[in-house]
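Annual report, structural modelling task.

Input specification for the zinc ion complex:
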Amino acid sequence: MRLGDFELYVMTAGGWHADGGSFFGVVPRVLWQKERPPDEDNLIRCACVAVVVRHRGRVIVCETGIGTKLDEKLARRYRVWEPDGLLSSLGSLGIRPQEVDVVVTTHLHWDHAGGLTRRRADGGYELTFPRARHVVQREEWDFALAPDPRSRAAYFEEDLLPVADAGLLELVDGEAEVVPGLVVRKTGGHTPGHQLIIFRHSDELSCAVTGDLVAQRPHLRLPWIPAADLDVRRSLEEKEKLLEEASSHRWLLVLGHETEHPAGYLEPGGGWTPEPELDNP
Ligand SMILES: [Zn+2]
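The model returned the following structure:
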């Protein structure tokens, strides 16, 4: 769909299965299982939702999913599906990886940054998008390379270091304009440098890519916050602010891990109206 100068496409960059308890934090299972029935292992299907944007001859990729590097044991544990989904979806738009100019991820957890790099035939790693500027919050980058013990399993150096080695890492602090009309806004909360990606044509015509601030539709309720979040009060404040802006200006929201109708509008009563032009990625 068009949003000012931006042509937006929403796609699924594969996904995995998350433990339901951890995904919904303090919300009891009797409540969340009505919204998202888990399988026999208590797992819930999660998508890695990506947004690809054409803007004045440029191609921008927001979020890259898990990618294809995860070893077999982890891929089995997380029940990863369609790990090469992003590149095949780009291919169906006629976009080659070399044509991508800008890559932005909400944060650097493996399910967002895994697609930044891929394995070469000789066993080393290469950038998936070899020409692109890669925009990340400085605080996220620093934490990802020196995470606390609880976060260590969520970051992989091989997703990250090749970006810096190629000289294509662009660190930002707080709010920054990446290209005219495309702003990243640091929220923290889920991770120290988690950010929203906002396409802004006007107050009334904007789109926010939410990452894990609003992972799926049940997370539109304020208290539904993943157990993984490092700073829950921060997540709560930032989510409240985003949802207030989104419902009063009817912003288009793209939810980071939603499997059904990830792009839509929050209605004043809390309902969700999918954007028909972006449905069924
Ligand atoms: Zn995530």
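Residues 232-249 form the longest helix (18 residues).
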